[in-house]
């Protein structure tokens, strides 16, 4: 019996694959390599190249492998770009999820852990986001993730699908030297690329009502995130009850200014970040409670900020 990890050749998915391996659980990876890397898939792990939109391919994958459940990480995740590409975003994240769920039902696979997002909350009006905080997504990406959660809920009612959705906040770091964040939109890669190119990293606004004037966000280590996916999968496999959604949040926050200081310390490249104007819609602080996930999914912050930065930097340099 194995778990299928869609998007398992991506930054987060590849860490989930390694977390399953660490528990001695077999995995199969399905990825279209649109943003993932074939080299992120460990040797010996069965790999199916293709899209979750390809129903025939999904049927073949379920028929060829003894799949007990799915961790669904595949999707188009660029919130800002989704505003310019709404139809593409909905096709990948909503239609793709529906096609996957249909293939699962046809194959008799009834357990799924879904990669959701903090983007479902939009700009919350609270200092500490909980699972009950009102959902008000502000991009097609955030909307598509919320619809994905609804699809799981409705399929649970209609067909007995056992499911849980994990809402991510800012995922950073690396748990393996051969897996790094290659996103052109995430903070850590942007800062590292600037330093490697001899440019000064930017901070968007330093006059927010926060201790150092820069935005405060919830940064979590990707390896910690991956562990909770495996715990969720094991509990679903055992028929144990889970909440329908969990926030994987720190309960605390780190400012962009603190991250810049940590990056300078870890890399040994001294710099004073360039202060750019605020970006429209950037709230001063978004931090989430992880209490429910700590109770049910062995969720905890196992890495300090320095360890997050060091692991990410080491992985990025190893890729050079």
From TrEMBL:
It catalyses: UDP-alpha-D-glucose = UDP-alpha-D-galactose. Its cofactor is NAD(+). Coiled coil: none annotated. Pathway: Carbohydrate metabolism; galactose metabolism. The keyword Isomerase applies. GO terms for molecular function: UDP-glucose 4-epimerase activity. InterPro entries: Epimerase_deHydtase (IPR001509), NAD(P)-bd_dom_sf (IPR036291), UDP_G4E (IPR005886). The keyword Zinc does not apply. PANTHER family: UDP-ARABINOSE 4-EPIMERASE 1 (PTHR43725:SF53), UDP-GLUCOSE 4-EPIMERASE (PTHR43725). This is UDP-glucose 4-epimerase.
